Amino acid sequence: MKNVAILGTVGLPASYGGFETLAENLVRYHQEHDIDGEIVVYCSAKTFPERAPSYLGASLRYVNLDANGASSVPYDILSLISAALRGAEVILLLGVSGAIALPFLRLFSRARIVTNIDGVEWKREKWKGFARWWLRKSEYWAVRYSHEVIADNAGIARHVAECYGRSCEVIAYGGDHAVQATGQAFEGEPLPPRYALALCRIEPENNVATILEAFAENRELPLVFIGNWKNSDYGLALLARFGANSGLRLLDPIYDAGVLRTIRSGAALYVHGHSAGGTNPSLVEMMHFRVPVLAFDCSFNRCTTDVRAIYFTDAASLRAAVAALSPERAEKVAAEMQRIAQERYTWDAIGHAYFKLLGLRGTVSLQPQGA
């Protein structure tokens, strides 16, 4: 029976974040399919002061540091050292923050290290100078010293092959949990009867300003945009510039899965502005709702949507795409998004792929749905 340690997340139960949702669905899949081996998930004691000993059959182990920001580096390093010293046979590292420790870990531990390198984080506009250099080196250390590397998108796999001459396992994220949530009423001011939807962290590489400019004068189809507007100078500036526009509804973050399901289900179309990061969880989640997707034109989004969404490059092209979207075209794109999501982005399929790579077997069938 293998002992698998999952590192690099804030911890469980998941409250927010792609890696936390991934970890939660992996331990759930492990439990539901009666897979052999034991799973330990490392958690931030700063986030979980009550420190439950287990969750969905997985043991929880705590590190007394924050899991995000600059402290993510020592947090991941201490988690790696702890997992190795406690005899983990397989370490699943989510992200590259602590990857500087991997060459040293390989000297004294026989653990098999599997790393999901996330997106090409160092290319994000918010990182400058030393931080960008560090993230790029961390990516190198992760690719060089992991036994297996996971890319969540074919575009990321191409980047790794071109930069480092190494192949990756391509395993994306599931999104069906979003459509399985029980709908709950939105308690804020009533939403328009028909609206477009955008949802993301308010960061420049998510093309937030572009999306707002495209919808600012659209009275026929208002835009509901959910994000953390008040967490940065960038967000506050956009809130001041666009907050009073009658064609826009700028909402604070919503973490309740039931409320999100209600808002997503009511959208006439979804606008996805991410330009970095590989397969974005918010996109694969929305694809399950059978809603037409208008995505920023980059290789990652084209890979995720199998080149079947509608793409834009700036405010003018987004505005034109919305104006030209006929009911027939909208239905065709929506159906394609849902089909792709149901084939590729279910947690059953993702769990199957991960545990096959980790070398664990279950007594319940490990065939993904539709196989």
TrEMBL record:
Q: Which Pfam families match?
A: DUF1972 (PF09314)
Q: List the source organism.
A: Ramlibacter ginsenosidimutans
Protein known as? DUF1972 domain-containing protein
Q: Where is the signal peptide?
A: none
Q: Which residues form the DUF1972 domain?
A: 1-176
Q: Which SUPFAM superfamilies match?
A: UDP-Glycosyltransferase/glycogen phosphorylase
Q: Which InterPro entries match?
A: DUF1972
* Highest taxon of source: Bacteria
